[in-house]
C-alpha cells in the first residue's frame, strides 16, 4: 500500500508533469504512437476483413493471420527494425511493430463479425432484389458493426498497453516513466506509470464506446421500428 | 563477406555467430522454454478451479472474468516492474507475470468449454449414477477438452512472445539477447534471437496441436459424421 501512496505523491507532484521527461510530454508521445497505429491498422485490416467477409472467402486466412500474429514478439520486431536503416527515421520502427501487432486481431474480429450475420437475413435481402453492394451496406455492415467495434476497442486497449514497449528500445511514451522508475529503483514511479497507462486505456475505451454509439448505423432504428 | 568476418562487419545473418555463441543461444532457448512452460502449466492449474468455480457459482463468473480481463490490460513492462518488490530479480517474477496474463485466455476458454457440455450428456451420466467427481472427470472434462486445449495453444503462443519482455529484469530468455543486441548494436544476435522466438512459438503450437489430436480422437471423426448420418436418414426415408 505504501507503493500506492507513493505513486499518489508522485502523480500529485507538479514537477513530474513538466518538461521533456514529464507526464504531459510522455502522454502526448503515447497518444501519438497509439493513435497513428490504430488508424493505420484499421485502414489496413477493416476493408480487407469486411470484403473477405462479404464474399465469404479467406476465412482460414483471417483466422490464421491472427494466430500467427500472436507468435510475433513485438519487442523483437521493434529492436530488429530499430537496427535497420529504418531506425534512422525516428518513430517509424515503433509504428511498424505496433501495426503488425494490431492488424491480426482487428482482421479476425471484423471477419468473424461479418460471417456471424444471420445467413437467412442476407438471403432475404438478396431475395428482395438487393445488389451485392446494397446487401453489404444496408444489411451486413449494420449487423456486423457491434462486433467490428468490439474488435477496434480491444485492439486500442492492447496497443496502448503494448506501446510501453517502445521505451525498452529507447523510444518515448509512458513506458519511459516505468523504465526510468525501474532504473532508479523507484517503485512509486513505476506504479504511477502503470496507473497512467491503465487510466489512459480505460479512457480511450470509454471514448470509443461513445464514438461507436454515435456512428452506429442502427442508431434510432430499433426505436423507430417499435 | 567471408563467414568469420561477418561478426566484425555486423551482418544480420552470420554463421560464425551461430557457431561461436552456440552455448549462449542454447542457454537462452532453454530458459525461454522453461519460463514459458512453467507459466502455462501453473496457469492451467489455477485457471481450471477458477473456471469450475465460475460455472458452479454463476455469481463468481462475472468477477472472475472481469478480474482476469483487467489483468490483461496492465502493460507487461509495468507488470514485471510492479512484481519486483515481491520477488526480486528472479525467473519466478517473470513466470508470475506470465501466469497472470495467461489466466485471461485460459479461464475464458475452459469456462466456455464446460458451459458447452450438453445438458443431456450431464443428465444421462447422473441417471447412470455418476457422482459429481466422476461426472466431471469422465464426461465434462473430455467434452470440454477441445476448447480447453485451444485455450492452452493460444496462451502458449502468446506467452512465448511475451517472455521476451522479461528481458527488463534479465530473465527474458531470448528477449535478453534481443535487448543486449540493441545496446551493443549486434545485428546477428537480435535477428537470430527474434527468429528463434517465432520458431519456438510455432513449434510449441504444432506440438500442442498434435497433443490435441491425440487426446481427442473423436473430433477428427466428426468431419465424416454428417455424411454417415445423411446416408442413414436416406435409408430411413427409403424404408418409409
In a nutshell, what does this entry contain?
By secondary structure, chain A is mainly alpha-helical. Chain A has ten helices and no strands.
Q: Name the largest protein-protein interface in this structure.
A: A-B, 38 and 38 residues
Order of helices and strands of chain B: HHHHHHHHHHHH
**Radius of gyration of chain B, in angstroms, nearest whole number:** 23 Å
Tell me what the CATH architecture of chain B is.
Answer: Orthogonal Bundle
SS-based class of chain A: mainly alpha
The percent range for helix content of chain A is: over 70%
Number of domains of chain A: 1
| Total helical segments of chain B | 12
Helix content, binned percent of chain B? over 70%
| CATH architectural name of chain A | Orthogonal Bundle
Task: Note poorly predicted spans of chain B.
Answer: 227-240
In CATH, the topology of chain A is named MetI-like fold
How many alpha or pi helices of chain A? 10
- The end-to-end span of chain B amounts to 80 Å
CATH class value of chain A: Mainly Alpha
Mean pLDDT of chain B: 86
Main location (chain B): membrane
Pfam families (chain B): BPD_transp_1 (PF00528)
Transmembrane segments (chain B): 29-53, 60-80, 86-107, 143-169, 189-211
Family (chain B): Belongs to the binding-protein-dependent transport system permease family.
What does the model show?
The complex is a heterodimer of chains A (226) and B (240). Chain A has a single domain, classed as Orthogonal Bundle (MetI-like fold). In chain A, 77% of the residues lie in helices and 0% in strands. Chain A is built from ten helices and no strands. The radius of gyration of chain A is 21 Å and the shape is elongated. Chain B is an all-alpha fold and 240 residues long. Chain B has one domain (24-232): MetI-like fold. Chain B has helices at residues 15-20, 22-56, 58-73, 76-82, 84-87, 91-115, 119-127, 132-163, 174-183, 187-215, 218-221, 225-239. In chain B, helix 3 (58-73) packs across helix 6, helix 7 (119-127) packs across helix 8 (132-163) and helix 8 (132-163) packs antiparallel against helix 10 (187-215). Chain A binds chain B through residues 3, 67, 70-77, 79-80, 82-83, 157-158, 161-162, 164-165, 167-170, 175, 178-179, 181-182, 187, 190-191, 193-194, 197-198, 201-202, and chain B through 73-79, 81-82, 84-85, 154, 157-158, 160-162, 164-165, 167-168, 174-175, 178-179, 181-182, 185, 187, 190-191, 193-194, 197-198, 201-202, 205. Chain A: Its main location: membrane.
